[in-house]
Each structure stands twice: as C-alpha cells, then as structure tokens.
Specification:
The complex is a heterotrimer of chains A (277), B (305) and C (435). By secondary structure, chain A is an all-alpha fold. Chain A has a single domain, classed as MetI-like fold (Orthogonal Bundle), CATH 1.10.3720. Chain A contains 12 helices and no strands. With 305 residues, chain B is mainly alpha-helical. In chain B, strand 1 and strand 2 form a beta hairpin. The N terminus of chain B is likely disordered. The chains are: A mainly alpha (277), B mainly alpha (305), C alpha/beta (435). Chains in contact: A-B, A-C, B-C.
Chain lengths: 277, 305, 435
C-alpha cells in the first residue's frame, strides 16, 4: 500500500515534469517571443527578453494595416458565433429525430452522415456553387459552409446522447399536450446541455481556428479571418518573429478562455454518450 | 462518441417502445435545414466534381476534355511519393494517437497525483490553430537557432534539420500532428474508461488477476468503441490533412513531405482547377476505399459483443 | 510601413454578416454626392513595396484632392496569382492593381478582363520590350510600375576588392573564384531555401545564356520542340548541381530565408547570391550602409562569349474592365500618374531603381554600383529577356524541383526532365498546340 502511494507520487511528478517540457514550454516560448524586440526575437532563443517590447508589439500588431487584426477578430467572432449557434440547433434536430424515429429517411441520413465524415469536400465545385448563389467571398457564404462541414460530427454526438434520454419523458410531455416543436425545444434541448456544450466548444475551436475554408471561400482582405491574417503575416514578414508570435498569442486567447470556462462540462459531454451507452 | 453502439442498443429497446408515442412527435421536417445545407454545399459539389474533373477549367472558361486530367494527374512525377506519404501520415498519426492516447488516458484516470492539471495541459495544443502550431514549430525546430537543437547540443548531440532534412521532414510533421491531436484522442479514451464499471476491476482483483491481465481482459475490450472513434476520426483527418504540412514545409524540401492533399492544393493555386478537382476525386476514392472496410469492421465487432 | 486601408472595410465586414448583397456592393466604393471618388489600389504587401505604394498615393492625392486611393495588400508568389485570378473572375477586383507582365499577365485573359489603355498619353513612351509584355494582339493593357531588373548573381564588391578577384566571365572562372573565397573563410554561394522561390535563379537567370546560343529557343520551346533536359538549357540545372556538390553553400541553406540571404550578403559572410536585383530595395531597407558594396554580374556561361544578363520587365499596372463611370476616370488618372513622368521622382526616392526604367524616366546620375553594373550589360548589348517574357510556359513546381537539385535530392538531368513534364500542365491549360 505504502509502496503504491510513493509510486503514485513519483509517477505523478514525473508526468507533470514531462508534460511541462512537452506541452508548456512551447507556450512559454510563444509568450517570450511576443515580448521581445524584432532583433532579439530573430534569435529564437528561450530566454527572458533583454528589452521588454510587449506593449509596443501589441500596439503594432493591432494597428498595422489599418487594424486588420482587429477587423479579423470581429469577422472571426461573427463567423464562429453564427455558425455554431445554427449548427447546434440544426444538428440537434437531426440527431434527435434520427434516434427516435425509424424511417427510410433515417437510412439515407445515416449514409450521408458517414459520407460527410469521410469525403473530402470538393473545393472548386463548392466555389462554383457559392458563386452561382452570389455567396462567394461573403461571410454568410462561409457561415453556411462551416455549418455544413460540421454537421456530420455534431449529429453523431447528439444522436448518441439522445439515446440516453428515456422515451417516457417524451410520452409524458405529449400527454401533457406539448407540440412536437415544444417537446424538442422545451424538454429535450435542455436535457442535452452536456452535449450542446461539447459541440459548442469543439466546433467553436474548429471554426475559429479554421484556415483552409476561409482561404478557399473568403479571399480578400475585406473580410479576413484571424487565421488568414496570421498566414499572410507569415508570408510577408518572415523575419518579424516578435509580431508573428504576438499575433499567435492574441488569437489563441479566445479558444483558451472558452476552454477554461467549459473545462469540466466538456469531459462530461464527451463521457455522457459512453456512460449510459 | 460511441455512436455506433448506442445506436444498436437504442434500436433494440426503441422498437419495443415505439408504440407508446405517436410518430408525429418526431416530425421529419426536422431533417429539412440540415438536408438543404448538405445537398447544396456538399452533395451537389461532390457530384459536380465528377463533371468538373473531366474539364479544363480556368475560372474564365471551361472545356470538356474527357479523362485527360486523370491521365495527367497520375503522370505527376511526384504523385507516387505523395501517395505513399499520405498512407504513412494517416496510419502513423492514427496509430500513435491510439497507443499514446490510451496509455495517457489510463494514467490520467488512475489515482495519479496532479491528474487534473495533466488533463488540462494535454488538451492545450488542441486550442492553438494549425497555422500557429506550424509557425511555432518552425521556430522551435530551426536547425541552427531552434531551442530543440539547442537543448540537444548541451547534451553533446548535433540535432538534425527536423523540417529541412528530406528523409526526416515528414516524420517531424507527424510528430507535431500527434502532439497537437493527442488531447482529443485522450479525451475520448477518458470518456470511454470512465464508463467502465469499477466492479469489474474489483472482481478481477478478488480473482487475483494482475494489473496487466485486468488491462488486457477488461479495459481493452471495453474501450473498443472509443478506439473505433479515435481510429476513424484521426485516420480520416490524417489521410485528408494538408494544412499542417503546408504551414511547416509546404510539402518540401522539394517534394519530400508532399501528400495528396498538398499536391491538390498546389494545382489549385496554379489555376489548374480541373486537374485539381480530378485529384480531389482520387483522394475521395482513396479515403473511401480505406475507411469503409475499417469502419464496417469496427462496427461489426461492436455488434458481436 | 503600415498601409492605410480605408475604414470603410470595417463597415463592409459588418454589412457582410447582415446581407450578402450589401457586402458585395460595399466591397467597391463609389462616387459620393460631393464629387469625390474613392478607388482601391491592390498591391503586394511586403514592407518596401508598401512604402513605395504609399508614397505614390500621397503624391497622387496631393495633385488630385477629389480622389481618395485606398491601399489593399495581397501576398506575392503563387498565393497572389491565385488571389488575382479569383477576384478577377468573380468581379471583385480592386479598381487598379499591379501584377507581373509577360506570361502571368497573359494568363489573366486580358482581352476579356482588362481595360484597353493604348490611347493613354504615356503609351508611346514605353519601351518596345515592355509594350510587348503587357499587350495582346488586340491592344495594350498595362502601365508600368517601376524599373526593370536583372536576375543573376548579386555579390559583395567589398570582398571582391579585399581578395583582389576579377568578375568571372565563364563558369569555370566563377568556380575558381569560389575556391579562393572559401579559402578566405567566407561562404562563396548563398542559398536560401526557406523561401523556395529563391532557388530558381540558377535556371531562370541562365536563360540569357541560352538565348545567346540559340535565339529561337523560346519559340521552339513553346512549340514543344525544345526541352530543359537537353543542352543548352540543361546548363542551368547542371551548374546548380555542381554548385551544390562543391559544398560552397552557406551552412544553413535549407532553412535560411530571402531576408537572411540579404543579411549575409550585406554583412559579407556570404559573397555570391544568385537572385534578382530587386534585393537592393530590401538591402536598402534593412542594411542601408551596404548598398554601395552590392554589385551585379550575369550568371557565367560555360563559354564566356555567351555570358549575358537576363532581364525582367517591371510589373504592369492594370484596370479591370468592369470599372465604370467616375471610378474608371479616377483609376485612369492614377495609372496616368504612376506611369507618367511626374512619378519618376517618387520612384527614385522611395526605392532604388534596380535597372533601367521602361517609361522614359531617366536613371539619376548617382545610382548605386549594382544598377550601373546592370546598365553596363545593356550598353554592351549583352542582355536578353527572361523566358517568361518570351514564352507563356512556366511550370508551377520549378521552385520545388530546383530545391531538390540544390539539396542533393535529385540530379540535374532527372530534375530537368521532371520540369519538362511539369510544364505540360501549364501548356495544356493554355491550350497551346503541340502538347
């Protein structure tokens, strides 16, 4: 017993030490780089800055090119909030009906969910569809794209969770005279909170950090997203490591805050499907 | 996560009960918004890609040319290498996420000191964007100024050009991919492990089974649904992946870390839209041929249990 | 350093979220009631070009108070090619943009997409060489944006003086110089594959030497009758391989960037850098003291009598033909200003010229030695245009193929053969005959 406890401590401390080197040091490196002057940052050293330039770098990153980073933050926020809100509602509706009602449509839907997971989106024809609809290069167009590409995975999560909600609840609500619409939004949705949180966190991080889709479907500086500013920034000023890392630091903050906020629920949401499954 | 299992079980119990609630409680129009989006932005482009792959397309005009794009795509001198790289990338990242993810999850669900801290820490890289991770590792792995080789040097080892050595670049990117994706794999495994009733382990202990035997005969079979999810998600992601490669090496040096995804992107950039779409169809076929049997196999095993 | 894009874009982003149609119309500004006009100039967003574009806009706006020009940035390289094509095809192009002349210009379908400019006042002042690379059979589409430049070897003249070296006339002389430079403890040849495009110069900068041996090569190449896998064009790949095998490269060549290359050259740790003479703007920006040390030579041919300098034409300045009304007039006024004589001084002040101008602007008397070197090749008649101005064919993978040669992954002959296959895509895309 005693031996086991020492083991636990030794193993735990070793694991913490290793994880700090592997996972924390890179983040400290980001912060250190973001605090240095251009000259010093180019040395790429893991050292405390000889001269602190944190505020200067912050101001330069935000103000450069007429506040493009700030504008990108706004664009990315609109994109993420709009896409994830709609995605949660739409995917939950499908996951719910799919689990509850056997029909031919379910067979088809199952096939499409699998297809949606596996098939890589065809870029050029998607551009063509967006152009036909007059949505190419617009934020609403990209929002619809992000929802579509996030559907398959979210539907899977919701479907798994709905199966853990007893049908007797549905029956009780129906007997009380609830319409199907009310049943879903007033009874089922609140019960699905853990999965809703999981989908919100996973998809927000995914969409906020998305690079390929804005690159293809939302070209141009007008409505750049944060990842595109970072990418363009990298190709244009390869030697301004300080500003590059300041930019990385800035755009990592929103997902980080979100994660810290939802940390506990996210594990619960992922688990719920498995616990009772 | 364990969608397939729950589906099967719910299906069984569901059938017996359907009688209770009228079908009208579950209106089919709930499918509608998703169906419209899926049709317009996914199904139509996917079908259209078969046609576009048979054309020469310059954005300004297009011309039907039959299978020439496919012939041309397979003539790309670097395609063979890219194809092999895609398989290496997909299977290696997926395999490592399964093995390391499970090991870490077992560790983090045990009574380990600081396990809550560790759980959070492992998840951090998931939050950083791929481009950010790419830029960061380009700096960390710089052969001369990077801190990785700097640390090796203090140990008396001359570090290699992680991302600039043609024989090593692909494997370095695989390492970065695993570093970034481990958090998700680990999370899924933790979810699976937590669901295993502790009585099983107690019974095993009473029977005098060793920890390893308990792991082999209880943990491993019971986390199979989670394993299936990790394999499917990471393999699909790995086979289709190109953004991390693009952010670190751009497929280089030369073509040594090119995968099908990056070859397609380069053709798209060059304005060869028809050719690039043909490549997309090829990638679609490759991923489907690999994934369908694997997911069938994983599902079948679950049903048998 | 910071382009002043208009605040209007901020509004456009918000509007886009509300309605697609709104966003589309907000993308391009229009004439206001008070007679003022706003147009956007899309240009590459590297530091030195941004400084130039801002100086041009300031000078233009001072003369035309009714017109506001907003600067919009874009990446260079293939990324930028793609962006330009997509925005033209979707009708969302800025009112004025600068972009390569020659084969990349031809790929824009100028007759279909651009405004014809042959009636502008500056049209007759352009050199024939430049006129031909911004024209199709149907007309002239581009004003000039800057000076021509050369591709070859930019070298550190101070170290040449220190070691008492002569400018080599043949490839063997060049390698002999390298041997002496290496013995003196400097890196003889700078290579920077962290920016892959820089690896192409051994091949692209050798074209004038090919041209000197066979003036019809480009036409026959376009007709699919000549190949890089054969001499004389193979020489570029062959020399690149020799340079790699000699071990004369800087140690960090796999990861060094273009800016690093400029620094090595300016600080004198590296001596020869096969690159474009436009590097002078970057050196002036980052290492102003080194400008006087920078010199230029053509890539030496095997036979000294073929050694000649490969010349690139400046970018063209174009207007999409979808621009109309007051905005069209404003865009034309801007192109007239930039290409016309009034902007000569702005160009000279904002960036060093890197070769002769193509629109009648005179080079100042006190140009840096590097520009004098380029000019001396012109005076001696030892120049030829780069291949991209003589043939529409350029394969997208050349930069990766030359990285392979320069890293020892592949030999010259196999690489050249791979490149011959790579250009097939481009030729077929253009619908050329014989492919």
């Amino acid at each position: 017993m005693r031996r086991e406890r020492t083991m636990r401590w030794v193993l735990g401390i070793a694991a913490i030490a290793v994880s700090i080197v592997i996972f924390i040091v890179p983040f400290i490196f980001i912060v250190l780089q973001a605090m240095k002057t251009r000259q010093e940052a180019s040395e790429l050293a893991f050292s405390w800055p000889r001269q602190l330039a944190f505020v200067e770098n912050l101001i330069e990153v935000i103000t450069q090119r007429d506040y493009i980073v700030a504008r990108a933050f706004l664009n990315s926020t609109i994109l993420t909030v709009a896409s994830v809100t709609l995605l949660v509602v739409i995917a939950a509706m499908v996951g719910y009906v799919m689990q509850r009602r056997a029909s031919k449509i379910r067979t088809v839907a199952n096939f499409f969910v699998l297809a949606g997971l596996i098939i890589p989106p065809a870029v050029v024809p998607t551009v063509w569809v967006l152009q036909t609809l007059g949505l190419f290069g617009t934020l609403p167009g990209l929002i619809l794209i992000e929802i579509t590409f996030g559907l398959a995975f979210s539907i899977l999560l919701f479907r798994a969770f709905v199966s853990t909600i007893p049908r007797s609840l549905d029956e009780a609500a129906i007997i009380d005279g609830a319409s199907p619409f009310r049943l879903f939004f007033a009874v089922i949705m609140p019960l699905m909170k853990p999965t809703v949180v999981t989908v919100i966190v996973v998809q927000s991080v995914q969409i906020f950090n998305d690079f390929a889709n804005p690159l293809y479907f939302l070209p141009g500086d007008d409505n750049a997203t944060v990842q595109l500013t970072l990418y363009n920034f990298q190709s244009q000023s390869s030697n301004q490591w300080n500003l590059l890392f300041m930019d990385i630091l800035l755009i990592t903050i929103p997902p980080l805050v979100m994660y810290i906020f939802f940390n506990r629920q996210i594990v619960a949401g992922m688990t719920s499907g498995a616990v009772k499954g | 996560m364990t969608a397939a299992t729950t589906e099967v079980r719910a299906g069984r119990s569901g059938k017996a009960r359907t009688l209770g609630v009228s079908r009208h409680a579950y209106p089919l129009w709930f499918y509608l918004p998703a169906a419209v989006l899926f049709l317009v932005f996914f199904a139509i482009p996917t079908f259209a890609s078969f046609y576009f792959s048979l054309t020469r397309w310059t954005l300004f005009d297009q011309e039907f040319i039959g299978f020439e794009n496919y012939v041309q795509f397979f003539r790309e001198p670097q395609l063979y290498q890219g194809f092999i790289n895609t398989l290496i990338y997909g299977f290696l990242t997926s395999g490592m996420k399964v093995v390391i993810g499970l090991a870490l999850a077992v560790l983090l669900t045990s009574a380990l000191v600081g396990r809550h801290f560790l759980r959070s820490v492992i998840f951090f890289p998931v939050l950083v964007s791929t481009i950010g991770v790419g830029i960061m590792f380009k700096a960390l792995l710089d052969p001369f100024d990077g801190i990785v080789n700097g640390a090796l040097e203090t140990l008396g080892i001359t570090g290699p050009g992680w991302l600039t050595d043609p024989d090593l670049a692909l494997y370095s990117i695989i390492g970065i991919d695993v570093w970034k994706g481990l958090g998700i794999a680990c999370l899924i495994y933790i979810a699976g492990l937590v669901a295993i009733p502790t009585e099983y382990y107690e019974a095993a202990r009473v029977d005098g089974a060793s920890k390893w035997a308990a792991f082999k005969s209880i943990t491993l079979p019971l986390v199979k649904p989670a394993t299936g999810t990790v394999i499917i998600l990471s393999l699909i992601g790995g086979l289709r992946s190109f953004d991390l490669i693009w952010a670190t090496t751009g497929g280089g040096p030369g073509f040594s870390s090119d995968v099908i995804g990056s070859v397609i992107y380069k053709q798209y950039q060059a304005g060869f839209y028809g050719l690039s779409t043909a490549g997309n169809v090829v990638l679609f076929v490759v991923v489907t041929v690999i994934m369908v049997p694997i997911s069938l196999m994983l599902n079948k095993r679950e049903v048998e249990q | 350093m910071i382009p002043k894009t208009s605040r209007r874009h901020f509004g456009a982003g918000v509007a886009a979220a509300a309605a697609a149609a709104l966003a589309l119309s907000a993308c391009s500004g229009g004439g206001d009631d008070d007679g003022s006009v706003e147009i956007t100039f899309l240009s590459t967003s590297d530091e030195d070009n941004t400084a130039l574009a801002e100086a041009l806009i300031d000078a233009f706006e001072a003369e035309n108070p009714d017109i506001t020009v907003n600067l919009d940035g874009r990446p260079g390289g293939t990324e930028g090619d793609n962006l330009i094509k997509t925005r033209l095809a979707t009708g969302e192009m800025a009112e004025v943009f600068n972009y390569n002349s020659g084969s990349l210009f031809q790929a824009l379908n100028p007759d279909q997409n651009l405004l014809e400019l042959s009636d502008r006042p500056w049209a007759d002042s352009l050199t024939d060489d430049f006129t031909s690379v911004v024209s199709t059979e149907n007309g002239l589409y581009g004003g000039s944006y800057g000076s021509s430049f050369a591709g070859g070897i930019v070298y550190n003249g101070a170290i040449y003086d220190e070691l008492g070296l002569e400018v080599p006339q043949s490839w063997d002389d060049f390698m002999a110089n390298n041997e002496q430079i290496a013995a003196a403890g400097y890196d003889p040849i700078v290579q920077t594959y962290g920016d892959t495009w820089t690896s192409q110069l051994f091949v692209l900068g050798d074209y004038a030497n090919v041209h000197a041996q066979d003036p019809d090569w480009a036409d026959q190449y376009t007709a699919h009758e000549r190949f890089y896998a054969d001499e004389p064009a193979l020489a570029g790949f062959r020399h690149h391989q020799e340079a790699y095998e000699s071990g004369y490269f800087n140690e960090n060549y796999p990861s060094a960037t273009f800016e690093d290359g400029g620094a090595m050259l300016a600080e004198g740790s590296g001596v020869h850098y096969p690159i474009l003479t436009t590097i002078l703007s970057s050196i002036r920006f980052n290492h102003p003291d080194a400008v006087e040390d920078m010199r230029f030579m053509a890539i030496p041919a095997d036979d000294p009598q073929h050694t000649s300098a490969t010349i690139w034409q400046p970018d063209g300045l174009y207007i999409p033909n979808t621009v109309e009304g007051a905005q069209r007039d404003a865009a034309l006024a801007f192109v007239d200003f930039v290409t016309g004589p009034d902007a000569c001084e702005v160009f000279i002040e904002a960036v060093n010229p890197t070769g002769p101008y193509v629109n009648g602007c005179e080079l100042p008397a006190d140009v840096p030695p590097l520009v004098q070197d380029v000019q001396s090749y012109f005076d001696a008649g030892n120049t030829a245009p780069a291949l991209e101005f003589l043939s529409p064919i350029k394969g997208p993978n050349l930069e990766n193929i030359t990285v392979e040669v320069g890293s020892g992954i592949r030999g010259a002959e196999e690489a050249a053969a791979n490149y011959d296959r790579d250009v097939e895509n481009q030729a077929r895309q253009l619908g050329l005959e014989g492919w």
